Amino acid sequence: MKTLFTFFIILLSSSALFAQDCECILSSGDWTNTDFMGQNPTLSAVGENWELSSSVWLSTELNQVSDTTINTILYGPDQNNSSILMGDCYSGVVNISINYLTIGVSTEPVGDIEFSIYSDDGFSVTSVSVIESIDVDSEGIMTATGNIVGGPSGQVDEDYTLLNLFYENAMGNSFTVLNNTTGEIETEFSDLNGDGTLEGCFLTDSQNDCFTISIDGGSDFTWSLWAGDILLLEGDDSDFETCDCVDDDDTANSLAAMWNPDINGCVEAVPYFISVGYPCDTDLSVLGMTGTIADICECTCEDYEVEEVFGCTNETACNYDETATEDDGSCVTPNIENGIQCDECCVYTSGTWSHINAFYLAGTDTPTISAEGDSWSLSSAAFLYSEEVENTDGSITTTSWFGSDSSNESFLVSDCFTGEVTLVLIFKTLNDVEIVGDIVIKMFNDQDMYFETITSVDSFDLNTATMTGSIMGGNAGNLIMLDSDGDGVGDCDETTSIIETVGIQKELITVINIMGQIVTKETGDLPVLYLYEDGTVVKQYKVK
Questions:
Q1: Kind and range of the H or E element at 461?
Q2: Which residues contact 402 (CB under 8 A, 6 or more apart)?
Q3: DSSP assignment, residue 465?
Q4: Distance (Å, rounded) from C-alpha 403 to C-alpha 400?
Q5: How far is it, in rounded angstroms, from Cα 182 to Cα 211?
Q6: Where are the domains of the chain?
Q7: Phi, psi of 273 (to 5 degrees)
Q8: In percent, how much of the chain has pLDDT > 90?
């Protein structure tokens, strides 16, 4: 059995070896129509594995055939209603078409109400819907609710693979595949008798790590799982279980409850622990327990293995990296000479940014980004290219590059740096729509200029595809000279000539102020001039 199981893992990890895929099933759901039959109706809906955000009424078409009217009502997006379908089968902007028949002057639907959801890129599913209730509020606004019958979506579910179950000598047997990681039943056949063949969809990612095949019923039952002509697993009436790792969700919940009682299982607990400073290798003896978090959540922690990150770990440095685990000697800290601070960390103030023609939604012109703060500005930077990487949690990390072209300078002007820069925008999306986590923005050149911070999206104009947001300020990572008196000479350079004469015998003639008056004692913050017999004049500026 072990050899077959190893082969099973290899096959399920390489779905290209067999052509049969599983069709994603859109679950049944419920819809709500606000301002039903009014001036501005909106429609939203939700099912177990999908959700439709608010969609606004676009048009109504009536086609008369004898005394029967074919009603076609269209819903879709506008500036205030995104009309986004998010789910296992599809995620993106959709339109909704509702079709039904009426007789004579009656507005009451006759027969089934056809409910279709479709997109511009080919997604389309048609189902049947019924109206369950219509409520009228005190202002006369009607709200209608109903349900939608689920069914095949026409989309391939890439997480599942279609396998064939062959069985013999069944006497009321059941065959159940349980996902040990989630505790959910992935595939289940019941009341099997005699010999037969069945098809089932099997989860290709988590089942190959940790699953149980449970058999109930007659003792002569035998079975085998096949991918096309390839045997994956076979067995009898005995249960079969394998798990390369174990997540103790109950213990994880108890541990997390010290801070957050809403945590459910290791899948939620591990990223939460990491976010509050307790990575998987945390020694739990500090909490009166034994072992580490990884001992409790073995499977989940495998997805959060921490690698050494080299960088500056000095929190007072201009280029401090909070993600660094090992100091690489790159820290940039202000210089102090003879008790005088010579420079300080240059800081970019918080600012705003504007993204024109985002994602080419408003036309074929090159998308651009510009930004500015109180002490800096970035001229228009042109979109160059983007890269997408799929993460283990199913999310997509997108990295978009912006820089100069024939029409856009991508020029940064600031106290910290002035010159041409490249800009990179990094963000993560779930279901191709929802942005999760921080949006990271980086500015750098081909030498030593580098600045990284986070940004947010504050608004998005669908008509012009203009996106705006704010940028968090922070250390630029480099030093700028301190010049307290604003004379163009650094504070440390003001005293350089005096320091250089230490050890050299020179006779001081007198000390005068800038008015030419002889000075016999310190004069607070005013600069003074030291006159020596060799003709040397040294200006000194004393700061209290």
A1: strand 450-461
A2: 368, 369, 381, 382, 383, 384, 410, 422, 423, 424, 425
A3: T
A4: 10
A5: 10
A6: 2-22+156-243, 28-149, 249-302, 347-481, 493-540
A7: -55, -45
A8: 23
Amino acid at 25: I
Please name which of 366, 485, 381 lies closest in space to residue 423, comparing C-alpha atoms: 381
In this prediction the pTM is: 0.39
What pLDDT, on a 0 to 100 scale, did the predictor assign at position 233? 77
pLDDT surpassing 50 at residue 5: no
Number of H helices, E strands in the chain: 6, 36
Distance CA 525, CA 99 (A): 84
Contact 426, 399 (CB under 8 A): yes
Tokens of 171: 């006497």
Single out the residue of 298, 301, 293 nearest to residue 256, CA to CA: 293
Assign 140 to helix, strand or coil: coil
* Identity of the amino acid at 222: T
Enumerate residues 6+ apart whose C-beta is below 8 A from 409. 379, 380, 420
- Nearest CA to 115 out of 85, 159, 78 is that of 85
Is 50 exceeded by the pLDDT of residue 532?
Answer: yes
pLDDT of residue 540: 62
| Dihedral sign of CA atoms 221, 226, 229, 232 in order | negative
Give dist(CA 203, CA 200) in Å, integer. Answer: 10
Please say whether the beta carbons of 25 and 90 come within 8 A.
Answer: no
Contact indicator for 479, 449 with CB cutoff of 8 Å: no
**Mean pLDDT for the stretch of residues 392-408:** 89
Higher pLDDT residue, 109 or 431? 109
Six-digit token string for 245: 């790792």
Mean pLDDT value of segment 79-84: 92
Comparing CA positions, the residue from 501, 499, 544, 502 lying closest to residue 523 is 544
Which of 528, 527, 534 lies closest to 485, judged by CA? Answer: 527
Spatial contact of 157 and 88, defined as CB atoms under 8 Å apart: yes
Q: Cα(525)–Cα(518) distance, rounded to whole angstroms?
A: 16
Least Cα distance to 397 among 358, 444, 435, 454 occurs for: 435
Q: Which of 502, 443, 511, 504 lies closest to 477, judged by CA?
A: 443
Amino acid present at 405: D
Residues 174-209 have pLDDT tens digits of 888 877 666 677 778 888 899 998 877 766 544 445
Do the strands 326-327 and 310-311 form a parallel or antiparallel pair, or are they unpaired?
parallel
What's the farthest any 2 CA atoms get from each other in the chain? 118
Give Cα separations from 311 to 41, 55, 322, 428, 478 (angstroms). Answer: 55, 48, 9, 24, 15
Q: Is 294 strand, coil or helix?
A: helix
515: confidence class by pLDDT, cuts 50, 70, 90: low
